[in-house]
Amino acid sequence: MSDTVIANRNETNEKCHFYTCLNGLIDVQIPIVVRGEHIANLYSGQLFFEKPDITFFKRQAMLYGFNETLYLAALEKVPMVSKEKVKLVMNFLLNTIELIIEMTSDKQEQMELNERIKESEIALLENQYRLRKSEERFRIVQEVSPDGFTILHPLRDHHGEITDFIFVYENHAIARINHTDPQEILGKSLLELFPAHHGTMLFNVYKQVASTGESKVIDEINAGEIVSEPVWLRLVVVSMGGDIAILAQNVTKKKLVEIALVESEEKYSSYIENAPDGVFVVDEKGNYLDLNQATSRITGYSQEELLKMSIRDFIPDELIEQTNCHFEKLLETGICSGELQFVHKNGSLRWWSLDAVRLDERRYLYFSRDINDKKNAESEMLYLSYHDHLTGLHNRRFFEQELKRLDVTQNLPISIIMFDVNGLKLVNDSFGHDAGDLLLKKAAEAIQKACSKEDVVARIGGDEFALLLPHTSSEECVQIANRIKECSSKEKVANIELSISYGYDTKETDKQSIHEIIANAENYMYRYKLFERSSNRSKMTDLIMNTLFEKSSREAAHSKRVSILCETIASAMNLGQDVINKMRIAGLIHDIGKIGVAESILNKPAALTLDERIEVERHPEIGWRLLSSTNEYSELAQLVLNHHERWDGTGYPNKLKGEAISLEARIIAVADAYDAVTSKRSYREALSKEEAIEELQRGSGKQFDPAIIDVFIRLVLLENRV
């Protein structure tokens, strides 16, 4: 059967084709198809599917003249296999052959691909070689390019001799070396600015180039002799249309290295070893070759440990790429500087500055300095620029920036809550600014507890806080504000409950201005604060008195006795029930300002020192500030302020005299003095009533109002009304 017939049968999806040969035996053939292409046929056969018809083969023997016995005996040796088994074997053989052919094809394609890759690699290597040559040429150009550039115009005398030069131009690089201003130097004389130039080799080179037009190169010159500091320059001087141009490259670092290398080993080692900054040498792989003690001190590793390490060994993984870039630049250009982080031996992440130059093809010199404190200070300054130093919250500057950033449609609704700490001034005046600071910290903590990570909370004023809430509805905003107020009410400072007033508003559409929302929130807050102010301050005044009495039992007893005395004197003077009641309260709180006096002074068993007395004498003013801020006690504030004024004008704090002092304050002064002298102190005994009367009489007309002294002695003390 021909290949064409087999192919045609394959097109009809017939995989195995069985046919009977002329000799009566069965053959089978299968087309071999690889990747859709018919490439060959697989043949097998000369078998039976079932027991053959002997009659047919006897006729065959007779027809072709075969020995029938031998022919039939051979026929018995022909295998008899089922059709399905033949198919199974043929399919196995077909799959094996096709796999071998495919593997052969793949190998052939791989060889062709390898050949193409080889050709590409050759082309790539050629391109890389040309690139390296180009980079080398560029590097050389960069190395010889000058840092500074100056143009001078020659000045000539009447003989045509050059006597000086005028500055036409200088760039900032050479100006830094010359300590000049590029603008102010224009038109000025070289010798006027730098008289030391006159007659020098360099000045003669300038003249020669200006006269002949022939360029000159000075590989190295110590310009420090002219600018009064160590500076080495490489100069190229060229003629430029009647002027001369000087291209200057600063080679000071290179020169200093050369000087260090040519000095004696002993002097070099001593200088390097005792230098305050780290100095070390590494090879082209970054391995330490030599180092001084400062390098060991900066890194925390001993000199022996570092000599077994590479500069990369104490760089954290996340910063290794930055260090590699630094070192690759050094290998490429021969000079590199930077500020990098490293891991100190103690595990801390620190900063150092590095300046490196090439010594030769295999050695590189580093100068290092520990700049950790500087970087920390920079970080601290950056932190403080956006944070409040007291509470740690963000400040107004950060809040305003975030307000701009978050004021976009996708963040709607945006709610803003404004908070104000109630009674901060009273706390500061009563308990000191440390207590006031603690009050602010407690308020900040209470607000923060109710915030999520995307919320912005900031202290925007002395006692004001703001909370910016993206994706927060008005209802959610109220819940947050109430939660903060509830949380704050659980906090206390010096027995005073933290009280916060708040106001809020919500931006729900793009048509609303975020600044209007802030203004509305502030207005609502101030209304709420005014509503609560009176009760808050009265409550706080009561708390202050209780706190004072807790600080000093002596003050508590004294205030209660003075209260009784003031009430009794007012009654004896027939001042009316309203005044009598007022005097009772005034006597009780007359020393409220002592809340601002140290407890150690209030309870001191010995006489007060001068400084301690000055401290105590502040209490009338402190009391006045406390009471004048409350509606309930405001009319008593002036009495408290003046109760240590004297009739003769020598009292404090305002040296008021006579009837310029209110009657009520004059009564408090008498009651206060009487209780003081009749109370025992550790440093003196209490006076008897008779002795106290004598003391009051001596002070009448000087310290005390004579009329009040007369009433107090005659109608109160002598009648035993107290």
UniProtKB/TrEMBL annotation:
Signal peptide (from-to): none
CDD domains: GGDEF, HDc, PAS
A UniProt-annotated Pfam family: GGDEF
Listed Gene3D superfamilies: 3.30.70.270, Hypothetical protein af1432, PAS domain
SUPFAM superfamilies, sorted: HD-domain/PDEase-like, Nucleotide cyclase, PYP-like sensor domain (PAS domain)
Domain PAS: 264-334
Domain HD, residue spans: 555-677
Domain HD-GYP: 533-722
Domain GGDEF: 412-543
PANTHER family listed in its UniProt record: CYCLIC DI-GMP PHOSPHODIESTERASE PA4108, CYCLIC DI-GMP PHOSPHODIESTERASE PA4108-RELATED
NCBIfam families xref list: GGDEF, sensory_box
Protein name from the UniProt record: Uncharacterized protein
